[in-house]
Amino acid sequence: MAIASHVTKRVLSTFAAAKLPEAVAAAGEAVSVAAVPSAVSAAAPERKVLEFEDTGRLFAGERTSALVRTLAALQALSVGPLVDVATAALRSPAVVGSALGRAAARATAYQHFCAGETADEAADVVRRLWRGGMGGILDYGIEDAEDGHACDRNAAGFIAAVDVAAALPPGSASVCIKITALCPIALLEKTSDLLRWQQKHPSFNLPWKAHSFPVLSDSSPLYLTVSEPPALTAEEERELQLAHERLLAVGARCAEHGIPLLVDAEYATVQPAIDYFTFAGALAFNGEEAADGGERPIVHGTIQAYLRDARDRLEAMVGAAERERVRLGLKVVRGAYLARESRLAASLGVPSPIHGSIQDTHDCYNGCAAFLLDRVRRGSASVMLATHNVESGQLAAARAQELGIAKGDPNLQFAQLMGMADGLSLSLRNAGFQVSKYLPYGPVDQIIPYLIRRAEENRGLLSASSFDRQLLRKELVRRAKAAVLGRE
Q: What percentage of the chain reaches a pLDDT higher than 90?
């Protein structure tokens, strides 16, 4: 039975103008075909933008041994009790601190999701991807710095990643960073509290605030700050300025070499401060020259579509960027901190900042994507659509084609994580779109938080790995038949 027959068709209201390809697969819960208005369903065209049926073409050039390893890893991650045991082990200092524990992590999840321990090892992966028609996003996997000394070391690591990217083939690599690696966590939390309080009380003065780019909306989780926070001390203001200077140093090196800098979103308690820093970088490096020339901006922020306030904040950001004549760069993701956000909200007895259903998250993601694709067409924004959801990939590809966005336009990129959604990556590449894989690297113990999120993501509500596994099984069966029986 064709793979496409196992997945439902749905036209989201936000993509009503787009043509819906026939073969789509949604991560998470299935959506009933009966819920789709018949008049809209009838408009779905026969031709598909992305193709998944011919797995021989899809996985051409991929070694059988690599497909087997990927299938085994995704199958293991789909077993809930096994994931629970593994994540508990990864959280245990006794396990991670032992040589045996690190070796076990390195041979399993680390090998599947990470590009190596050094930037040079990750660069080798970028070169391999580039030969296969895709790019790479170098992510020096460090986060949650505790003090300024750690932040300085991390900034040096990010700058080294930029230098490595600059030595790779032009256009093959970008660099991703986390603000929690450049500014102490406690200071980010306090700064975020102050920004939330100002959102609730606009007359509240923040003397250190260098720009008024919107980082919150009235629909943001302002309840995380319940009373007026204390002002930053003189030492904290100095540390905030140092963090700003670290970001500018990384951004300047990126601008020198024309390397895009992607700033990851993180968790709600620190996200306002992260966005504040991100837009400070955008104002410094994405100015009028990029806006007038249509060039891809240097600094890209991130919108997490699983957050209830995502669309409101996105529209505010776009409006501010147009007023300031700043070329906006954004990466759109669903979000990877679902378990953390849910635990925090439950502990505080407050509503979760995350959408109440997976379909609401899908609708928000696709709506944000459609909104930004229109800005790409106008030449006012650059977007990286980071998704493992096949339906979202299909809809965005169809919408981009309908809007006449050239597949070689550097202001439209797609991305998936290393070790996940390879079928979607390859299908987008085969359709002519620009695709990159997100490549975290660093010592095993440094990458543990990332590995935990990947395990939870594959087990959790947003998982799309069942479709990946189905594609892999089909291709492995096809290859086995070809080898044993001499036929397809």
A: 68
Task: Give the pLDDT confidence of 240-289 residue by residue, as tens digits.
Answer: 999 999 999 999 999 999 999 999 999 999 999 999 999 999 999 998 66
Determine the number of helices (DSSP H) and then strands (DSSP E) in the chain.
20, 8
Q: Pick the closest to residue 397 from 424, 416, 417 (CA basis).
A: 424
Helix (H/G/I), strand (E/B), else coil: 333: strand
For the cut 90, the answer to whether the pLDDT of residue 28 exceeds it is: no
Instruction: Please give the structure tokens belonging to residue 171.
Output: 């256009």
Contact 353, 221 (CB under 8 A): yes
pLDDT, average across residues 1-9: 39
Distance CA 352, CA 64 (A): 43
Tokens of 102: 């690190």
SS3 of the chain: helix, strand, coil, percent, to 5? 55, 10, 35
CA distances 279 to 179, 219, 370, 399, 406, Å, are 12, 20, 22, 28, 27
Structure tokens belonging to residue 205: 């003065």
pLDDT tens-digit readout, 435-451: 999 999 998 888 887 87
- What is the C-alpha to C-alpha distance for residues 143 and 111, in angstroms, rounded to an integer? 20
Q: Rounded to the nearest 5 degrees, what angle is found at the Cα of 451, between the Cα atoms of 445 and 456?
A: 145
CB-based contact 200:220 (threshold 8 Å): no
Residue 131, judged by CB atoms within 10 A of its CB (0-12, 13-18, 19+), counts as exposed
Q: Burial code of 394-414, b = ≥16 C-beta within 10 A, e = fewer?
A: bbbbbbbbebebeeebebbbb
Strand partners, 175: 138, 261
Q: Are 465 and 77 in contact (CB under 8 A)?
A: yes
Q: How far apart are CA 233 and CA 92, in angstroms?
A: 35
Q: How far apart are CA 100 and CA 85, in angstroms?
A: 16
**pLDDT tens profile 117-165:** 999 999 999 999 999 999 999 999 888 899 999 999 999 999 999 999 9
Question: What residues contact 34, with CB distance under 8 A and at least 6 apart?
Answer: none
Give the rounded distance of the alpha carbon of 478 from its chain centre. 32
